[in-house]
């Protein structure tokens, strides 16, 4: 359903299990960045009323997820660590050329967001099925559906605001690029990398 061309190696879960504190910190910041991205779309494209409405709801939902992850960190006697660079997102954002029209810029942002949500959903599924921590397994299972909904929402908006054929072609190219990117990632206890 997600269309990802390269699944995460299940051994990634073994890396995560060795440092739960690190994955939870990374996950918390991913949720915060997702909320920030939703807000940036509102600021950048205020005339797109349907997008503004959906991004307002998304920002609230992502901050709710941030709070849930933060609660898990506190429950385990830890504190939220410092933010880390997200190598996956940094490399992913290099795919589309800079410049172009405002509409093209919007479509590219939406496709990037769809990809990040698709990979997050795939990672949440893997954690829900493979992690040897019943509480976290259930937690990630509960978040999977919302990530899948976000992925489809971003793709729907990209197709709405761009030429459907061009958007679908760009999406396939981005999927290929992301698969190549993932060959060098998945070796750290981070949500995407």
TrEMBL record:
<dbReference type="Pfam" id="PF06175">
    <property type="entry name" value="MiaE"/>
</dbReference>
<dbReference type="InterPro" id="IPR009078">
    <property type="entry name" value="Ferritin-like_SF"/>
</dbReference>
<dbReference type="InterPro" id="IPR012347">
    <property type="entry name" value="Ferritin-like"/>
</dbReference>
<protein>
    <submittedName>
        <fullName>tRNA-(Ms[2]io[6]A)-hydroxylase</fullName>
    </submittedName>
</protein>
<dbReference type="InterPro" id="IPR010386">
    <property type="entry name" value="tRNA-Hydrxlase_MiaE"/>
</dbReference>
């Amino acid at each position: 359903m997600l269309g990802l061309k390269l699944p995460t190696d299940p051994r990634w879960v073994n890396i995560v299990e060795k440092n739960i504190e690190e994955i939870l910190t990374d996950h918390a910041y991913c949720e915060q960045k997702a909320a920030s991205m939703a807000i940036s779309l509102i600021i950048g494209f205020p005339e797109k009323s349907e997008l503004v409405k959906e991004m307002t709801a998304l920002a609230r939902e992502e901050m709710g997820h941030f709070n849930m992850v933060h609660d898990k960190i506190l429950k385990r006697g830890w504190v939220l660590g410092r933010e880390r660079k997200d190598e996956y997102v940094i490399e992913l954002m290099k795919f589309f050329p800079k410049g172009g029209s405002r509409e093209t810029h919007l479509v590219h942002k939406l496709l990037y967001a769809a990809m990040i949500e698709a990979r997050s959903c795939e990672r949440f599924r893997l954690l829900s099925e493979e992690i040897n921590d019943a509480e976290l397994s259930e937690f990630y299972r509960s978040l999977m559906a919302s990530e899948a909904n976000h992925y489809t929402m971003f793709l729907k908006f990209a197709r709405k605001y761009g030429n459907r054929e061009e958007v679908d072609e760009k999406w396939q190219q981005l999927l290929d690029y992301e698969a190549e990117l993932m060959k060098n990632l998945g070796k750290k206890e981070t949500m995407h990398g």
